[in-house]
Amino acid sequence: MHTLWGTATPPSPLTPAEARVIAAAVPSRRREFTAGRACARVVLEELGHHDWSLLPGPRREPLWPDGVVGSISHCPGLAVAVAARSADALAIGIDVETDAPLPANVVGSVMDAGEAQAIEQLAAQDPPTPWERLLFSAKESVYKAWYPLRHEWLGFEDVGIELSPDGTFLARIRRADTAPLPRVLSGRWARGNGVVVTALVLPGR
Ligand SMILES: CC(C)(COP(=O)(O)OP(=O)(O)OC[C@H]1O[C@@H](n2cnc3c(N)ncnc32)[C@H](O)[C@@H]1OP(=O)(O)O)[C@@H](O)C(=O)NCCC(=O)NCCS
């Protein structure tokens, strides 16, 4: 698997096709898109895909070359792209967030009562860790792994997240049919340098 962590000032420009799809966006959006594409370009090169235009699909999902799965995330000051050959990974989801409490008006729509209770216990053991932010991020990572395979919306209420202090989490997808993904996915989280990151990789077959 190939991962690149980058800064918000990417060294390489967009391909002409990528530049066209983001041309009308506001400057901050163009910057984050460009930073994510610059990271993706490096991981794609490492996988042998040169000059691939990583265009967005209808729901903004990056359209990786055949035989590649990957994921992109950005937050202020940081972009990340991760990709792997489909033989090695069925799906990948990654999400980076600023290490800060989740805004109070968002918390209620992201977690249910059971998740809120678990978060309260984690926060009592380890107050500095932004547990609610991590739970939110884990759901974003699950969605990014899920969507390219299923092409279906998944709401915050459709996934239950169980965070552990050891840097892992479990995600339970509350759907009758989750194929080809398993219903329970395991992921990892980390915190440092002002950001939190969650990620999951589903092994290939
Ligand atoms: C799409 C979404 C997950 C992006 O997350 P975000 O925290 O806003 O932004 P991030 O920087 O972490 O990620 C953005 C990147 O995700 C990727 N992405 C966007 N939509 C995607 C999709 N449908 N499938 C896979 N990846 C997607 C893109 O690469 C995007 O960057 P780009 O537009 O520059 O290429 C989020 O905006 C969203 O729509 N969430 C609602 C769905 C959800 O999270 N459900 C949770 C329950 S599982």
Describe this structure in words.
With 205 residues, the protein is of the alpha+beta class. It has 2 domains: 86 residues, no CATH class; 88 residues, no CATH class. It is built from 5 helices and 8 strands. The strands form 2 sheets. A 5-stranded antiparallel sheet has the order 4-8-7-6-5. The chain has a 3-stranded antiparallel sheet with strand order 1-3-2, covered by helices on one side. Strand 2 and strand 3 form a beta hairpin. The longest helix is centred in the first third of the chain and has 20 residues. It is globular. The two termini are 15 Å apart. The relative contact order is 0.15. The mean pLDDT is 94.
- The spatial strand order of the largest sheet comes to 4-8-7-6-5
Please, what is the average pLDDT?
Answer: 94
Q: Major β-sheet, in short? A: 5 strands, antiparallel
How large a portion of the residues is in β-strands, by DSSP E? 25-35%
| Total tally of structural domains | 2
Order of helices and strands: EHHEEEHHHEEEE
Unreliable segments of 5+ consecutive residues: none
Helix content: 25-40%
Oligomer: single chain
Q: Number of helix segments?
A: 5
The tally of strands reads: 8
Structural class: alpha+beta
Q: Short summary of the structure?
A:
With 205 residues, the protein is α+β, with helices and mostly antiparallel strands. The protein is built from five helices and eight strands, in the order βααβββαααββββ. Strands 4-8-7-6-5 form a five-stranded antiparallel sheet. A three-stranded antiparallel sheet has the order 1-3-2, with helices on one face.
